[in-house]
């Protein structure tokens, strides 16, 4: 369904999160560099959308992620050596993008393996959330 909506809307990216996870992950957004910000569960701080250099760069990750061809290129996915684990749960879309599932079951931040998978994915793609600037 995610792919169908994303393809129909010609979206750069989309994501699906379980209801219980979304509010906690929303706390990742750092609205002010002048204020202290404590990220939930050690997840990285993300910039608000207006500070992300391209609309093709996802604002954050989800359990299911739909990345257009442009979004995939912007974040450097796939890199067969780095992304082998993600590729085992990913499939190519008809328009050259990817649907990527982070974990086998819906994301649960109380599950240490799920939290580790999410942190690892953020480490692989520092562009997500506008955490890097072009060099």
Structural write-up:
- The chain is an alpha+beta fold and 135 residues long.
- It has one domain (2-124).
- Helices cover 27% and strands 11% of the residues.
- It has a 4-stranded antiparallel β-sheet with strand order 1-2-4-3.
- The longest helix is centred in the last third of the chain and has 13 residues, at 112-124.
- The radius of gyration is 14 Å and the shape is globular.
- The N and C termini lie far apart (37 Å).
- The model has no long low-confidence stretch (mean pLDDT 89).
Key features?
135 residues, 11% strand, 4-stranded antiparallel sheet, single chain, alpha+beta
- Read across the widest sheet, the strand sequence of neighbours is 1-2-4-3
Shape field: globular
What is the domain tally? 1
Percent helix, as a range, is 25-40%
Radius of gyration: 14 Å
Distance linking N and C termini: 37 Å
Order of helices and strands: HEHEHHEEH
| Helix-strand makeup class | alpha+beta
Fraction of residues in β-strands: 5-15%
Mean pLDDT: 89
Largest sheet: 4 strands, antiparallel
Number of strands: 4
Describe the secondary-structure layout.
Elements: H1 2-9, E1 13-16, H2 22-26, E2 64-67, H3 69-75, H4 84-87, E3 90-92, E4 98-101, H5 112-124
Antiparallel strand pairs: 1-2, 2-4, 3-4
Quick recap of the structure?
The protein has helices spanning 2-9, 22-26, 69-75, 84-87, 112-124; strands at 13-16, 64-67, 90-92, 98-101. The chain is an alpha+beta fold and 135 residues long.
């Amino acid at each position: 369904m995610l792919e169908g909506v994303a393809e129909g809307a010609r979206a750069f990216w989309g994501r699906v999160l379980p209801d219980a996870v979304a509010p906690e992950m929303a706390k990742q957004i750092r609205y002010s560099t002048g204020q202290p910000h404590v990220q939930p569960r050690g997840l990285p701080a993300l910039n608000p959308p207006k500070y992300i250099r391209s609309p093709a760069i996802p604002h954050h990750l989800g359990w299911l992620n739909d990345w257009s061809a442009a979004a995939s290129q912007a974040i450097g996915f796939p890199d067969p050596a780095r992304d082998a684990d993600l590729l085992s749960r990913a499939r190519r879309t008809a328009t050259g993008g990817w649907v990527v599932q982070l974990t086998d079951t819906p994301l649960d931040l109380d599950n240490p393996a799920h939290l580790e998978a999410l942190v690892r994915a953020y480490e692989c793609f520092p562009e997500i959330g506008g955490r890097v600037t072009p060099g």
